[in-house]
Amino acid sequence: MGVDKSELVVPLVGALQASISVLITIFFGVLTAQFNLLSTGAAREVSRACVRMFLPALLIYKLGTNLDKETGVRYVPILVWSISYTLISLGISAIACRIFKLPNWVKLAVTFNNTTSLPLLLIQSLSTTGVLDAIIPPGDDASKALDRAESYFLINAMVSNSLTFALGPRLLRPSDEDAPDEENKEGEESDGEGQESIERGPDGIVHEETSLLPQRAVRPINRVERRGYKRTTKWLQSLPPWAQQLLDFLYQFANAPLLGTLVGAVIGLTPPLHRLFFNDSNDGGYFNAWLTTAIKNVGELFATTQIIVVGVKLSQSLRKMKAGEESGTISKKSMSFVFLMRFFFWPAVSIPLIYALATKTTLLSSDPMLWFAMMLMSSGPSAMILVALTDVTGSPEEEKMVIAKFLTISYAITPLICFAVVGSLKATEAAVPR
């Protein structure tokens, strides 16, 4: 039995258009840097704001909207799948690096893909092209279905971000927007020594970092902070070494996206709070018109802004590469292995696996958007964390240039994800009961 070519051409063209739109958005970020509209420091600050403010706000809104006592169970498979494919990727890449003598950065390029801004922007573009209409069940509201898809990807992003923190600095480090600032480190050290906090500048002059609170309020607050820091440090030092290591490991999970996830879950799973935040004003939703709307507006800044920052970072890396006399060469084995894993291996594994789980078991809910999202979660280009890693670990300039080249090529071939999109779309359509 033959297959109508239009059944493949239409979604393929739609997916290709969506992926190209993401690539064009990255190009706008490159132009932003080329025309000096965003400096290196400003791009880092914007990226930090994306991760610490915009993404948590988006998680609060999306999860709070879609999560309740009836729908909360559908998020459990995402947590399991996100942790599983990340750890499997790490294991495969570690073995490959040892066998084929690949550089260490290949482990990170294989293990961590772009799980935040890229999937969200791709979903938005796919909804515009209309290719997702085929997997939206009859009678289901299209906008609500897309909201659910975004919430699924956000849960995956939260898991990936948390694992990035938890796996330790020897293997990887959090992106530069999540790394502690040097000035914050210095402030913590001075607090730990118990010195009197300086409410004014060193010369007694008020500057931009001076607290706006009165001196009478600032001094007691600083004393309480120092006492709490001393007592906590003393308590930690009294614990056995294994307990200290365990607490240190658990502390790595305390990041802004995870906190946003917890807040969104609490709001969604608590009926009175869910009603206050998301019902109509006439139906008890007294926070909806002002607080919820504000959180939504802040969260919607994340996807496009973060993609713009990706373009800025790529442009900065290319500038460094151009300025260097020796830019290094990318190993064909390394590039081929990463691209094979990111764009072909994981789609070939995840699509039939999720299809089987959706059709042969009851482990997944009956939401086709969940199946489609889970099929795509493990695909896509490597995360920009590689850029930060080279800065944090003090890698040689030649290695930085090689990684800059790799990321540029990786995002340039992002339209390859259209094949994974089409495969996921057709598999999801086939899994929907007729």
From TrEMBL:
Alphabetically ordered keywords of this record: Membrane, Transmembrane, Transmembrane helix
Residues spanning the signal sequence: none
A GO-annotated cellular component: endoplasmic reticulum
Protein localization: Membrane
Biased amino acid composition, Basic and acidic residues: 197-206
Region (Disordered): 174-206
UniProt cross-references to InterPro entries, sorted A to Z: Mem_transp_PIN-like
Membrane-topology descriptor: Multi-pass membrane protein
Residues annotated as transmembrane: 12-33, 75-97, 249-269, 289-314, 335-358, 370-390, 402-425
GO biological process, one term: transmembrane transport
Entries under Pfam families matching the protein: Mem_trans
Comp. bias regions, Acidic residues: 177-196
PANTHER family: AUXIN EFFLUX TRANSPORTER FAMILY PROTEIN (EUROFUNG) (PTHR31794:SF4)
Name by which UniProt lists this protein: Auxin efflux carrier
Source organism: Didymosphaeria variabile
